[in-house]
Amino acid sequence: MAKRQDRLTVDDVNGAWAIIPTPAIDTGDDWRTEDSVDYDEVARSVEGLITAGVDSIMCQGTFGEGATLTWEEKKKMMEVMVETAAGRVPIFLGVTTMNTRETIRQLKHARDIGADGTMLGLPMWQQIDVPSAVKFYQDVAEAVPEMAICIYANPEAFKFDFPAPFWAQVANIPQVITCKYINIGQLHLHTLVSKKQIRFLPLEVDHADAAKMDSFHTAFWSPLACGGPELTIHWRDSVKHAVKTNDWSIPDALYPKMALALSSLFPPGGFPEFSRYNIQLEKARINASGWMKAGPCRPPYISAPAAYLEGATKSGLAWAELNKQLLAGKL
After folding, report:
1. Model confidence over 98-128: pLDDT tens digits?
2. Confidence (pLDDT) at 270
3. Is residue 1 very low, low, confident or very high in pLDDT (cuts 50, 70, 90)?
4. Best label site of 63, 125, 138, 291, fewest CB within 10 Å?
5. Kind plus residue range of the DSSP H or E element containing 219
6. 149 forms bridges with which residues in the sheet?
7. Range of the domain at 43
8. Domain containing 44 — which CATH number?
9. Element (H, E) at 117
């Protein structure tokens, strides 16, 4: 195996970083199903996102159902994604597990098949402290130095607040180049303490606000591209143009429409309550959009309140309608 000689750096983190679910076959919600992944849909979606113009693709996080896939399923999906992408965009594979050794084993496989990096969260059996969290990423980087790391900073999933001292220390790990990030209220602080060694990826709808804050913020993570990537690419390009011209009229007009389409996805109680049903709601949203067949959820995370699912479905339909308007030149 030839080790990678071209590890990505923070300068390579730009544009729309799409995150995909792990599509399931129709019996994927049955524990008796030994291989639940719809690999044809994996390949079709990766090809579609690349053709549409996304800048990177990540997978096997929360709504990617990394916690409910078998290792055999993860391995094959990784291979299909890397083979389909064929080096056209960076592929970041999820290898979050319950411990450091298993994460390293899985990341070595990702390296060996030609992936570019990992979207990596913390082990979550215990509530981890800052020194242990930093050591975890140091150990992974030392074990697989060829691979870039996107820290998956979800405080609800990993029972960790990702405070400023954490970012100040992991910024010294060369492999850590980016972060899937949700807390735009602390984005300036965390960018400052990390000395711009990490390019944080805010949520898609926060991209314009981040870019207005600092021109360093040139990228975002997109869960919405899987509901139809055209609007995601239009949003990316309109913000990039606004940064150059200081004319924010297009992003400022587009933002409320995107935010409204996303609003019904979140139940009363906000992000903490949403996180209790993240997989179910995101899959309902994506399935309703019609662009990707995400399929059913894998056990045990298969049910959610009917009102929550209705809101997620409404969000998916609204995003699909915005894409339709865009393609018709009416947006």
Report:
1. 999 999 999 999 999 999 999 999 999 999 9
2. 87
3. very low
4. 125
5. strand 219-222
6. 118, 176
7. 10-245
8. 3.20.20.70
9. strand 117-120
